Amino acid sequence: MPDLSPTSPIVALRGVGPSRSRALAAAGFVTIRDLLHLLPARYEDRRRRCRVAEIDGPGKYLLVGRLESLKRIRVRRRHLTLVRGLFLDDTDKLPVVWFNRPYLPTQIDEEREYSLYGEARERATGFELVNPSVEPVDPGNPPRIVPVYPAVPGVGGSLLRSLIQQALDRCDLEGFRDPLPEDLLRRHGLPELSEAVRQLHAPKESADLDELNERRSAAHSRLSYGEFLE
């Protein structure tokens, strides 16, 4: 059951302590409504999982498996750190490299499965996954279209995404009262404001990725139309 409303303070979300609430407030996010008004900058297609042996060319891939042998590599360039390791699934191994994530080796459990999404680049020795996102595998989180949000200083991208998902799960979106009359929405084939907010942050599996990234989806049109009419 929803236990939050759009006017609830952002500190009501699990995982938002004093330091994170200050970072979010500095970026203009004080209430749940503020957070849900942050639109994704782009969307990534993570609907199709790939195995290491199926990588057949450069591009972005979603992989699920284990990580091992993660080590921080010293480099001479200032303000740059490297972490290298291996990704394993039931078909093969794949080298992985991350930039400026020095604490990653201490956060990874080699016995646990992770979902990695990133770009496979071809090297002289084969493919290498470069700077992928890393999230623990959650059975309740099937492959999907994933929103990517603008950077918020002090709040990582995956944490921001999880906070917004938590807000969607716990907030009564009917609190986003739609100022547009129903007949006007029907005439233009637009969703209600609450549904548009949900579709923008949690697109359906059948959503058109190009429409989302080009901001031509019905949910984007609802927000644009509302702003224009206002």
Write up what this structure looks like.
Helix content is 28%, strand content 26%. The protein has 230 residues and is α+β, with helices and mostly antiparallel strands. It is globular, with a radius of gyration of 20 Å. The protein has 8 helices and 7 strands, in the order ααββββαβββααααα. Strand 2 (59-73) and strand 3 form a beta hairpin. A 5-stranded mixed β-barrel has the order 2-3-4-6-5.
CA distance, first residue to last residue = 33 Å
Mean pLDDT: 91
Largest β sheet strand count, sense and barrel closure: 5 strands, mixed, barrel
What overall geometry do the principal axes of the alpha carbons give? globular
Q: What are the segments in which pLDDT stays under 50 over at least 5 consecutive residues? A: none
Strand content: 25-35%
Order of helices and strands: HHEEEEHEEEHHHHH
The oligomeric state is single chain
Provide the gyration radius in Å: 20 Å
The number of helices is 8
Derived from helix and strand composition plus strand pairing, the structural class reads alpha+beta
Helix content: 25-40%
Count of strand segments: 7
Give a short summary of the structure.
With 230 residues, this protein is α+β, with helices and mostly antiparallel strands. It has helices at 18-26, 32-36, 104-107, 157-170, 182-187, 193-201, 209-213, 218-229; strands at residues 42-46, 59-73, 82-88, 93-99, 114-123, 126-136, 144-148. The strands form two sheets. The protein has a five-stranded mixed barrel. It has a two-stranded antiparallel ribbon with strand order 1-7.
